[in-house]
């Protein structure tokens, strides 16, 4: 398949369409842009944002319930929802009368056998293309509607930055510069864009997706925000950053413990772009009380802006040996580890970085 093929699949899809997306920035923006596409095609749809921490089986149970209660669904579109292939294939087989379109950028290869109703469009597996799901949906929109769709380059850039993949998409960067040179000059972003990005970082994905065109007007977009809430969230982010305590440092690796991991790791990586940033945060204090630390789980967030390592592959490799979950993108990855394996993770990352020498 190519982008014209996947665009045709969406254009020819039967109503009603269920869109399923992750609730991170890439998921928010890809769902919002897909809604624009479907509305321009006069398609009826409903949407579901994946809940943070929801595993494959949880998601499947929820989707089974939606399909059972809403019997008019004829098409499903997965966006930035990296479901394990075995679950995705079994799910597709059980719902063989529904066309399932899987759009993503996490996979390394395409399964050998796919059900007839499953359209598998993962750009990494197909083309070894390192762009985010929002960029994929943006290109689908441009394929269908031409240059008029390029006004959504501003929103697509938000999703791409959320996955550390904006610099990989020259087409999107060119469109952003052409349409929004007051936000971006081809090398760096101006202050209004930084404010705009921050608003998206803390905003409710349902509110954004409800009227995605309104989000293009920064003055109108800001009116929807509670200033007291913005202040409180800013304080919360500062508190999380302040909580980060360095527990290990080497030439290529920095490790912190903090109250929360993902946003903090992103901020810290901007200060140390050449190093791998590893941030650990305690997942469940209940485990600490019941098992006295032996099985305490830590949420981990990995960032590196140099592009020297594929953090997603490293996390998958580590968790395959030590259990729990892990994966992600070349510059941003995450997962869960037991406290007893933190030292193993640090040693593993040191060994892998030394192999790059």
How does this structure look, described?
Helix content is 48%, strand content 17%. The chain folds into two domains: 3-186, inorganic pyrophosphatase (n-terminal core) (Alpha-Beta Complex), CATH 3.90.1640; 244-355, Diaminopimelate Epimerase, Chain A, domain 1 (Roll). The two termini are 37 Å apart. The protein has helices at 3-11, 25-40, 56-69, 85-94, 123-127, 133-145, 153-162, 170-179, 191-202, 205-210, 218-223, 227-243, 262-271, 285-291, 311-322, 342-355; strands spanning 17-21, 45-49, 75-79, 99-104, 118-122, 245-249, 253-257, 276-282, 297-303, 326-328, 332-338. The radius of gyration is 21 Å and the shape is globular. It is α/β, with parallel strands linked by helices. The protein has a six-stranded mixed sheet with strand order 6-7-8-9-11-10. The protein has a five-stranded parallel sheet with strand order 2-1-3-4-5.
Topology:
Blueprint: H1 3-11, E1 17-21, H2 25-40, E2 45-49, H3 56-69, E3 75-79, H4 85-94, E4 99-104, E5 118-122, H5 123-127, H6 133-145, H7 153-162, H8 170-179, H9 191-202, H10 205-210, H11 218-223, H12 227-243, E6 245-249, E7 253-257, H13 262-271, E8 276-282, H14 285-291, E9 297-303, H15 311-322, E10 326-328, E11 332-338, H16 342-355
Parallel strand pairs: 1-2, 1-3, 3-4, 4-5, 7-8
Antiparallel strand pairs: 6-7, 8-9, 9-11, 10-11
Helix pairs in contact: 1-6, 2-6, 2-7, 6-7, 7-8
State the major sheet: 6 strands, mixed
**Second rung of CATH, namely the architecture of the largest domain:** Alpha-Beta Complex
Secondary structure class reads: alpha/beta
Query: Beta fraction of the residues?
Result: 15-25%
Structural Rg: 21 Å
Number of domains: 2
Number of helices: 16
Question: What is the 3D form?
Answer: globular
Number-wise, the strands total 11
What's the pLDDT, averaged over the residues? 88
**H/E element sequence:** HEHEHEHEEHHHHHHHHEEHEHEHEEH
Spatial ordering of strands, largest sheet: 6-7-8-9-11-10
Annotated CATH topology of the largest domain: inorganic pyrophosphatase (n-terminal core)
CATH class of the largest domain: Alpha Beta
Helix content: 40-55%
Distance between the ends: 37 Å
Give unreliable regions as ranges.
none
């Amino acid at each position: 398949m190519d982008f014209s093929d996947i665009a045709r699949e969406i254009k020819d899809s039967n109503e009603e369409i269920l869109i399923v997306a992750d609730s991170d920035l890439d998921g928010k923006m890809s769902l919002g842009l897909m809604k624009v596409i479907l509305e321009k095609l006069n398609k009826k749809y409903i949407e579901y944002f994946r809940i943070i921490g929801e595993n494959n089986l949880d998601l499947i149970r929820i989707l089974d319930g939606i399909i059972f209660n809403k019997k008019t669904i004829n098409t499903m579109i997965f966006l930035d929802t990296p479901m394990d292939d075995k679950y995705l294939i079994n799910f597709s087989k059980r719902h063989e009368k529904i066309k399932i379109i899987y759009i993503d950028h996490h996979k390394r290869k395409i399964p050998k056998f796919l059900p007839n109703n499953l359209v598998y469009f993962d750009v990494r597996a197909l083309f070894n293309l390192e762009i985010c799901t929002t960029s994929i949906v943006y290109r689908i929109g441009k394929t269908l509607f031409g240059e008029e769709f390029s006004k959504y380059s501003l929103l697509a850039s938000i999703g791409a930055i959320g996955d550390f993949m904006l610099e990989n998409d020259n087409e999107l960067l060119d469109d952003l510069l052409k349409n929004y040179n007051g936000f971006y000059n081809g090398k760096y972003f101006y202050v209004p864009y930084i404010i705009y990005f921050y608003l998206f970082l803390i905003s409710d994905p349902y509110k954004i997706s409800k009227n995605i065109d309104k989000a293009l007007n920064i003055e109108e977009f800001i009116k929807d925000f509670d200033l007291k809430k913005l202040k409180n969230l800013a304080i919360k982010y500062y508190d999380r950053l302040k909580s980060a305590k360095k527990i290990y440092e080497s030439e290529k690796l920095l490790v912190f413990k903090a109250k929360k991991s993902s946003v903090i790791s992103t901020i810290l990586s901007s200060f140390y772009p050449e190093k791998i940033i590893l941030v650990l945060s305690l997942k469940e204090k209940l485990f600490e009380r019941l098992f006295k630390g032996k099985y305490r789980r830590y949420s981990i967030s990995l960032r590196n802006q140099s592009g020297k390592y594929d953090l997603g592959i490293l996390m998958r490799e580590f968790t395959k040996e030590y259990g729990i979950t892990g994966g992600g993108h070349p510059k941003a990855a995450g997962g869960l580890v037991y406290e007893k394996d933190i030292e193993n993770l640090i040693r593993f990352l040191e060994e892998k970085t030394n192999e790059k020498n």
